[in-house]
Specification:
heterodimer; A: 394 residues; alpha/beta; Rossmann fold; 2 domains; seven-stranded mixed sheet; six-stranded mixed sheet; 19% strand; B: 183 residues; 6 strands
Chain lengths: 394, 183
């Protein structure tokens, strides 16, 4: 089962994962802040190595609309976007999840204007958590490739039928080159058979799709949609296990912990910062500090149960948020807090807002966060902005 | 972990060799590598940075390069006092220059190795594109990448017509740098 290795970017890794997943149509709008993913896919469609139609549409809104059309006839759809592009397709996101179209989309996590910025943070996708899409955040290019293949399998599962967003940190993952092991097509084909669904336009089996509802049954539709995302929890775990058996790489389901067994303080993070935090954890452990890190992989479905199982013994918990919900706190922090509140245990908690608009989160920043958690002044403002270049009087 | 910073101008190919060097070390060597450009828009002629991180184990640290072990300068007209920031005391400067030692004061006595990459490139390519020559210089100085691995990566990444002459550039610049080191 030897796989071919490539030295490629996160964007390339996504494109290769998409090709292996055999989509029928890729619809995309190729302009900033779009990533190179769709350029690679158009080249693959052109040179014949990808047997798919590439639809060059006139906006992200149309890219999502076209993807829904593709999915509505029972075909496999892919699109990619980033930042403002994701916002522009926001209307379509809710439509796609309500229509139960299992579209897979890559989102390059980048800041939102204004001020205009093409650099990375997670404000875009976290701002659209309520759109009904499954959301995964990956740590490196290998996980990016593997998750595209897993995404189709999860999204198309008959209990799930929900669109799936694979999130990669802009630049840090999208534009960084690294070694990636590329699975063999025949094994991917075995893992991911062609998409079949009854939820499609079909002359033999006519049905009403994309219809309206009266107040009488809208709640029931929304309940089913909610139920499908909740049911995806088990599907996500099963698919990851099956993937590991076939390809030798598993990602631990909804969350992944590192050195938390006897930890006094942990940081909870999403995406590419995980590795840097692990390096700091190893260094601080060597210095005698009991620290660890939990990577949240899925923000939808939110891994409440898994998180509580892992951290109910931890005295001090910090959450790094590469976003801010203005007037309150970071979005991930709100979620973690809600889970903790329901469980009844009460650790010391802190929210670190960092890395906005591409600002580097350095190892010394991370060490500082751990020290705040270990020795923190309990009265201090629970929401701290890390790495500010100016003095703030609060 | 070894951290490398590449200085060039947009269009000179510094980012291309930052990537090829990482590929050589990992795909054709026994190391792990990350290669990334200075994030953001690219403009022809404007100063650009590239970065390569190399280690014996998988590289988890994705924070910005703070203290470089090697700094490769494709275009000496880019040198300013600020370029001395973010270099380890033991760091090595590899400069495309007829006489790199004249920058000793800028780099506060750090080790400087220079070759005249522009002449090599003009001789072989007929154009002052020095990226592959400077990659060869780094290979010779650092020993992070063997000549074989470097050439394999070059051939994988460049069109055959361009690769052929650049192989000669790399071989020439590699030999030249070894002469400078032993000289």
């Amino acid at each position: 089962m030897s796989e071919e290795k490539h030295f490629i970017s996160g964007n390339d890794a996504i494109a290769m994962g998409v090709r292996l997943s055999r989509p029928h149509v890729i619809s995309a709008y190729p302009i900033t802040p779009q990533t190179i993913v769709v350029e690679r896919l158009s080249e693959m469609a052109e040179d014949g190595s990808l047997d798919a139609e590439f639809m060059h549409v006139e906006s992200e809104h149309s890219a999502m609309s076209a993807a829904m059309g593709v999915s509505a006839v029972g075909a496999r759809a892919f699109t990619a976007t980033s930042s403002q592009g994701l916002l522009y397709m926001a209307e379509g996101l809710f439509y796609a999840s309500g229509g139960r179209f299992p579209i897979v989309m890559m989102n390059g996590n980048r800041a939102l204007a204004l001020p205009w910025s093409i650099y990375g943070d997670q404000s875009d996708s976290l701002g659209l958590l309520n759109s009904g899409w499954i959301q995964v955040y990956v740590e490196d290019a290998q996980e990016a490739l593997d998750m595209v293949i897993q995404a189709y399998k999860i999204a198309e599962h008959k209990k799930v039928l929900t669109p799936f967003m694979v999130n990669l940190d802009g630049f840090i993952l999208t534009h960084t080159y690294e070694l990636v092991s590329v699975p063999k097509q025949e094994i991917v084909d075995k893992f991911l058979p062609p998409f079949t669904t009854v939820n499609k336009m079909d002359f033999e089996r006519p049905m009403n799709m994309g219809m309206s509802t009266s107040p009488k049954d809208n709640l029931e539709y929304k309940y089913q949609q909610h139920r499908a995302v909740m049911d995806s929890v088990q599907v996500i775990k099963d698919v990851d296990k099956e993937y590991e058996e076939l390809f030798g790489r598993g990602y631990g389901g909804l969350i992944k912990s590192y050195r938390i067994e006897d930890a006094e303080a942990v940081l909870i993070v999403l995406g590419s910062i995980t590795g840097t935090v692990k390096v700091v954890v190893d260094k601080m452990r060597a210095d005698g500090h009991k620290v660890g890190v939990i990577k949240i992989r899925y923000m939808r479905p939110f891994p409440e149960e898994e998180l509580l199982e892992e951290c109910s013994h931890i005295k001090s918990i910090g959450v790094i948020d590469k976003n801010i919900s203005f007037g309150y706190e970071g979005t991930v922090f709100t979620h973690v807090n809600s889970a903790i509140a329901k469980s009844g245990f009460s650790p010391f908690i802190m929210n670190f807002i960092a890395g906005l608009g591409g600002k580097d989160i350095s190892k010394s920043h991370i060490e500082g966060m751990f020290m705040t958690l270990l020795e923190g002044d309990k009265k201090k403002n629970k929401v701290q902005f890390v790495g500010m270049g100016v003095q703030i009087n609060e | 972990m070894i951290e490398i910073r590449w200085h060039g101008r947009g269009g000179q190919g510094s980012w291309t060799v930052a990537r090829i060097f990482g590929m050589a070390a990992s795909l054709f060597g026994d190391k792990y590598a990350l290669a990334f450009p200075s994030f953001g828009p690219e403009r022809r002629g404007a100063p650009v940075l590239g970065f390569t991180k190399i280690d014996d184990k998988k590289i988890l640290d994705r924070s910005e390069v703070q203290e470089s072990d090697y700094v490769v300068i494709l275009d000496e007209t880019l040198i300013t006092p600020a370029m001395n920031n973010g270099i380890k005391k033991t760091g090595v400067l590899i400069i495309n220059s007829e006489d790199g030692q004249k920058y000793k004061s800028v780099f506060e006595g750090k080790r400087i190795v220079s070759i005249d990459a522009t002449s090599i490139a003009l001789d072989i390519l007929g154009r002052p594109i020095t990226n592959t020559a400077m990659m060869a210089a780094l290979m010779a100085v650092s020993n992070l990448v063997g000549l074989d691995a470097g050439l394999k990566a070059l051939k994988k990444e460049m069109k055959p017509s361009i690769a052929e002459k650049n192989v000669l550039v790399v071989e020439t610049a590699y030999k030249k740098t070894l002469e400078v080191l032993n000289g």
